[in-house]
Design goal:
This protein has 10 helices and 11 strands. α7 links the parallel β5 and β6.
C-alpha cells in the first residue's frame, strides 16, 4: 500500500499545474503607446533596441495580468492589407530578419487569408507571395517523402527558406531511435541541397524537465544531426536557469524564445540568443484553454501593444545575430498571418511588390 502511495505521489508531481482561479477574471491592461522612432542600425536596418542586455532577464512580467485570448474570426487579410496601404501582393525584402507563420496549409485560412476557393495544393503558391520563410510543423506528425519537400523547394523563390520541426518520436518519445533520425535527414535533403533549410526545431513537451538524463538526450540528439542547424524549445520552467546559455553553447544548440501564457510551470518569456541565429515563436496567451491542448490553445490574436513590447526586444536580438527568425503559431482562423504582418510593420521591414 505504501508503494502505491509513493507511485501516486510521483504521478501527481508530474501532472500539469491547475489553471489559477484568478486567470479567468483577468482584466485588460491599458494599451502601451506605440514606440517612438529610434536611430536605425547600419547592419540590420532595424531601429536600435531599447534593451541592451536581456539574455537572462525576464522582460515580460508585466504581461501576467493580460486578458485571456480574444477568439472569434480574424479580419480578412486583404482588407487589412489595403487599410495599411500595402501593395497586393506584398512581400518583405529578403534580409537578416525574417517573419513567417508556423505552417501555411489550414482550411480555416481560406477567407481570412487565402482567396475563396483556394485548394490546399495552391496555398504555398499564394503564401510565398507575402512571406519569405515558413515553419513546417507537419513533420512532427508524419515524415513525408523527399519528393514532397522537393516540390516545395521548386515552388518557392530562391531566397525563400524553411524551418522544419523534428518528428515527435525524437522530442516526445525520446527512445534514441536511429530510424526517425535517418528518415528526417532524407526528408530535408532537397532543402539542404537547395540551401533553403534554415534549420530544425526540437519542440520538447512540458514533461521534458531538466535533469542529467535530459541533458544527455540533448547531447545525443546533437550527435545524430551534426550537420544541421538545430534549435530547442522548452516548455517546462526547470530549464529556466542562469547556466542555460552555457549548456546550449557547449552542445552547439540554438535556443527558441517563446511567447505563451504566463502560467505556473511554463518557462517564462525570455529573449535569449545562443549562437549566431535568433529564433522566436509566438503561441498566443490563451490561459483558459492552454492545458486542454488542441487548436483552441492557439486561438489568440495579439494586439499591437503586445507585439510592440516584443519588437523592441527582437531588435536587440537581431543586433547580436547574423539572422533572425520570428514565427507565429497562433494559427487558428488566420490570426498568425495578421500578427506576422503587424510584427513586420513594427520592425520596419521593407516591403516590395511582386513583379
Amino acid at each position: 500500500r505504501s508503494g502505491r502511495r509513493r507511485r501516486a505521489g510521483r504521478r501527481a508531481a508530474h501532472r500539469q499545474p491547475p489553471l489559477p482561479k484568478k486567470a479567468e477574471a483577468m482584466s485588460e491592461q491599458t494599451p502601451r503607446p506605440a514606440p517612438r522612432q529610434r536611430p536605425r542600425s547600419r547592419r540590420t536596418g532595424l531601429a536600435r533596441p531599447r534593451v541592451r542586455d536581456h539574455s537572462q532577464t525576464d522582460l515580460f512580467n508585466g504581461f501576467a495580468g493580460r486578458a485571456p485570448g480574444r477568439g472569434g474570426e480574424a479580419a480578412p487579410f486583404e482588407q487589412w492589407s489595403r487599410e495599411q496601404g500595402l501593395p497586393d501582393p506584398a512581400r518583405r525584402q529578403p534580409g537578416a530578419v525574417r517573419v513567417g507563420t508556423s505552417g501555411y496549409s489550414f482550411p480555416d485560412w481560406v477567407g481570412p487569408f487565402y482567396p475563396p476557393g483556394t485548394k490546399r495544393h495552391e496555398m504555398l503558391d499564394y503564401y510565398q507571395r507575402f512571406f519569405n520563410t515558413v515553419e513546417i510543423n507537419a513533420t512532427y506528425y508524419r515524415i513525408p517523402p523527399p519528393a514532397t519537400m522537393q516540390r516545395m523547394v521548386e515552388r518557392t523563390p530562391p531566397h525563400f527558406d524553411f524551418m522544419v520541426k523534428l518528428p515527435g518520436a525524437l522530442t516526445h518519445k525520446r527512445e534514441k531511435q536511429r530510424e526517425p533520425v535517418e528518415s528526417f535527414r532524407r526528408c530535408v535533403e532537397p532543402m539542404q541541397e537547395a540551401e533553403k533549410l534554415a534549420g530544425a526545431l526540437a519542440q520538447f513537451p512540458y514533461s521534458f524537465h531538466r535533469s542529467p538524463r535530459s541533458e544527455a538526450y540533448l547531447a545525443w540528439l546533437r550527435e545524430t544531426l551534426p550537420e544541421m542547424p538545430l534549435f530547442v524549445e522548452f516548455r517546462h520552467r526547470s530549464w529556466d536557469r542562469s547556466d542555460l546559455s552555457a549548456l546550449l553553447e557547449a552542445l552547439h544548440l540554438g535556443f527558441c524564445s517563446v511567447d505563451e501564457p504566463a502560467l505556473p510551470g511554463l518557462i517564462p518569456r525570455r529573449a535569449l540568443t545562443v549562437g549566431d541565429v535568433a529564433y522566436a515563436r509566438f503561441h498566443g496567451r490563451n490561459t483558459a484553454t492552454w492545458w486542454g491542448g488542441g487548436s483552441e490553445r492557439y486561438d489568440y490574436r495579439y494586439d499591437e501593444s503586445e507585439l510592440a513590447e516584443w519588437a523592441a526586444v527582437l531588435e536587440g536580438m537581431a543586433e547580436r545575430a547574423t539572422r533572425s527568425y520570428i514565427f507565429f503559431n497562433n494559427c487558428h482562423a488566420g490570426h498568425a498571418v495578421l500578427n506576422a504582418k503587424m510584427m513586420e510593420d513594427l520592425l520596419g521591414l521593407e516591403t516590395i511588390a511582386e513583379s
